[in-house]
Structures are given as C-alpha cells and as structure tokens.
Design goal:
By secondary structure, the protein is an all-alpha fold. The protein is built from 18 helices and 2 strands. The protein has a two-stranded antiparallel ribbon with strand order 1-2. The chain starts with 8 loop residues before the first helix and ends with a helix. The relative contact order is 0.16.
C-alpha cells in the first residue's frame, strides 16, 4: 500500500491557468478576436454610453500578446507532471518500485478519457471534413490519415502527420513516453543501488543527463540541422517530438527530488520566493515581448524551450511559499479537471467555429470556454471517476 500522497493545492491552480492559457492561444487562431472587441465596444456604448475605444484597443493588444505565448502553458503541465510522478515513484526509495502496479494505475487514470476523446474526434472529423488543406495541398482525409490513425492508439502521433482535431495531443504523448521509461530507470537504480540516498543521487543524475541531452539536441538542430537528428526527429513538427521537450518533465522531477532542500532554503530566506517569482515573470516578459518563442514561431531559440520551463519552476517554487490566489477553490476545482478540459478543448474549437456567424465572435469565445470546461468536468466526473474506482479494486 502506498503512503498517502502529499497534496499541493496551488498546483491545481496552476493547472487551471495553464489549460486556459493554452485555450486562449488557440482561440486567437480560430476566432476573430478583433471583431469580438468590436462587439464589446458596441455593447458598452449602447447600454452604458461609455466610449471605451482606447481602453479596448490597448486591452486587445495585451490579450493578443498574452495569447500568442499561451503555448508555453504546456511546459507548466510538463513540470507539474514530472513533479507529481516523481512523488509517486520515489516516496519509498528504501523498497523496490512496483512497476506493474504503477503502469496499471496510470493506465486507468489516463487511457479511458483519452481513447474516448480520440475516437469521438476521429469520427467527428471524418464527418465534418472529408478533405483537409495542409501546406497548400488538398488531401483526402481517408488517404492522408489512414496510415497515421493507429499512431493515436500507440501514442506515436507526434512523429506522424496529424489529424487536425487531435494535433494538440502531442504533449500527452511526450508525457506517456516519459511515464513508460522513467519507472524502469528508477527500478534499475533500485536494483543497483543499495540505499535510499544513493538511489536518489542516481535518479538526479539521470534527470540532469536528460536535460543536458535535450538542450544539446536543440542547440545542434537549430544551428546545423544535422542529418542524423533530422532522421530521429522525423516529424512534421520537430518541436512536438519527445527528444525536443522531455527535459521539461525531467526538470519537474528535479524539483521534487530537491523539495526538502528547497523548502529549507525558502524558510531561511525571507525574500527568496519573491525573487524567484519575479524571475519567472521576467522570463515570461521575454516571451510576451516577442524576443523569444517556442513552437515553430519566428523567434524560436534553442534555449527558449529551457527558459519556458525554468519560468514555471521559479513560479512553482515561489507559490509553494505564498500561493493564496492559486488556492482559490474555483481554480482548484477547474484544475482537477484540467486533463479532461485539455483533451476536449481543441476538438470542440472546430465545432464552435460554426457558431461565430450566428452569435458573433465574442459570444462564441465565451460559450466555447464554458463548453470546453463543462465537457472536461463532465468526462472527469464520469469516465475518469468510474475507472478510478475500478482501479482502486484492481490495484489499491
């Protein structure tokens, strides 16, 4: 039986922020936000006789820039996942890791919602779009994706041309790849190291090596596009592949492994958490100002991928000392369903684009956020809850 897990309320708050940040990022590419602000301007002018044109123009610029970097909300998820999974696997380093039990419990947590969303998305997309335009080519759905559909059931889709409605699932694949390998590494460490301190040091070394490896891969890929790297990163989007992004999860693992030392340092230093919070925000400002980016944009830099999760690390550490806002009950409630919301938000955005001509972009965005949140919460409290109950019986 595993020890009762330590609960971090502020991480649920971060999950909620991360999933809405990603949704905002996608909303700006699917909906006409400029017209939405025009609707807002007309609303305030007609009903309140307020001319807020200048204010709304400034707000639109800010929101546009914030949404443009919303894709780094994924790095928040990566760090959180690495942190929490390390807590599960290293709670008892004195005893061997039960890999079978770990995989069983993760499967019941992740797979039911995932497979349900994948099947629904494939059916919807086939019904809605017999053809898809990609890179200027009109390609038939059945031919283009016939060889790639199986990849969604084997968690390999970040290495194949993607079904548009499921193109966001690349991040889930990276997490699954890590969840597959990481427990095996810890099990091997426990077999070869006889005491808990030695095992902890070995796991730390592994995580550091992963971070170094990914940074070197990005550095050489951006600088030279070395042929063997191109072969390994054989994907339509190299920045969505495991070798490019898995170090964010390793960073979250290190955060957990060094948690006692970090907590002790924070207690002895009055302003360290403030300094770390400011550092995290300043890194995000670099993204906001367009100086760096990730995800295939014009300002992509090899080190920007590292800075994206370093910012999250700084904010997580700061929040562990002062996290009142992040522990808001509503945020925590949404955060606990963030996996379901993330799964469905990109599928639903294709459906909600059809509403815009009828209710306008402003109400479309509002209804979309409410709808994606609602569907995510529903699948979490039904599908996930049911299979977690089954998991408790099979792998307590």
């Amino acid at each position: 039986m595993e020890q009762e897990k330590k609960y971090y309320p502020y991480l649920d708050g971060f999950r909620a922020i991360a999933v809405y940040w990603v949704m905002l990022h996608h909303s700006f590419y699917f909906f006409n936000i400029h017209k939405a602000f025009g609707q807002l301007y007309g609303f305030f002018l007609v009903f309140f006789s307020l001319n807020l044109k200048a204010f709304l123009q400034s707000a639109e610029i800010v929101l546009r820039n914030v949404s443009a970097i919303g894709n780094i909300g994924v790095d928040m998820f990566f760090v959180i996942s690495g942190f929490l999974i390390t807590g599960l696997l290293t709670e008892h380093l004195e005893s061997p890791v039960d890999i079978k039990r770990f995989y069983t419990r993760r499967a019941f947590k992740i797979l039911p919602q995932y497979f349900f969303a994948v099947i629904v998305a494939i059916v919807l997309y086939k019904m809605m779009h017999p053809f898809v335009v990609k890179d200027g080519l009109r390609l038939q759905f059945s031919h283009m994706h016939g060889a790639a559909l199986w990849s969604y059931f084997l968690f390999l889709q970040n290495y194949f041309i993607q079904v548009p409605m499921l193109s966001h699932t690349w991040s889930l694949v990276i997490e699954e790849h890590f969840y597959l390998v990481y427990p095996i590494i810890i099990a091997l460490v426990c077999m070869n190291q006889k005491d808990a301190p030695s095992r902890r040091r070995a796991i730390i070394i592994f995580c550091v090596l992963v971070i170094i490896m990914c940074n070197l891969i990005r550095l050489f890929y951006f600088a030279h596009g070395i042929p063997w790297l191109n072969a390994i990163l054989h994907s339509p989007h190299h920045f969505q592949t495991t070798l490019f992004r898995v170090d964010a999860l390793a960073a979250g693992c290190l955060l957990k492994l060094f948690e006692p030392q970090i907590s002790s340092t924070l207690k002895s230093s009055k302003y360290l958490h403030v300094l770390l919070g400011i550092t995290g925000i300043l890194i995000y400002v670099l993204f906001y100002r367009g100086m760096i980016s990730v995800g295939g944009y014009y300002a992509d830099k090899w080190f920007a991928y590292t800075l994206a999760y370093l910012a999250a690390l700084c904010l997580f550490i700061a929040a562990s000392r002062a996290s009142t806002f992040l522990e808001n009950p509503v945020l925590r409630w949404i955060g606990r369903s963030s996996y379901g919301i993330y799964l469905w938000h990109y599928i639903l955005i294709y459906l909600f684009t059809f509403l815009s001509p009828y209710i306008g972009p402003l109400w479309t965005v509002i209804v979309y956020f409410l709808g994606a949140t609602g569907i995510g919460i529903i699948t979490t409290t039904t599908i996930e809850k049911y299979f977690l109950a089954v998991r408790t019986k099979l792998a307590p």
